[in-house]
Specification:
With 74 residues, the chain is mostly helical. It has helices spanning 3-28, 31-51, 55-73. The termini are far apart.
Length: 74
């Protein structure tokens, strides 16, 4: 089994969690903020797909992105 087969399910999980975050944010905020949240999520997805070659770095990066997003909202 090569690394791509191992990677795909976990990548789907990561994408799903980002989509859930986006939907949650969409319900809670105004339309203007929603656009920003969605663009952030897309940006995160692109970064994840780049970094998923090494799954751990992808996860760490996602965590950092989430943290930065939280800081920005305060």
């Amino acid at each position: 089994m090569d690394w791509t087969q191992k990677m795909v399910p976990s990548l789907e999980v990561e994408m799903h969690s980002v989509l859930l975050v986006t939907l949650f944010a969409k319900q809670r905020r105004s339309r203007k903020n929603t656009k920003m949240v969605i663009s952030n999520s897309i940006f995160m997805l692109l970064n994840i797909s780049h970094l998923m070659v090494s799954h751990t770095s992808g996860r760490q990066h996602l965590r950092i992105m989430m943290h930065l997003n939280r800081q920005r909202k305060k």
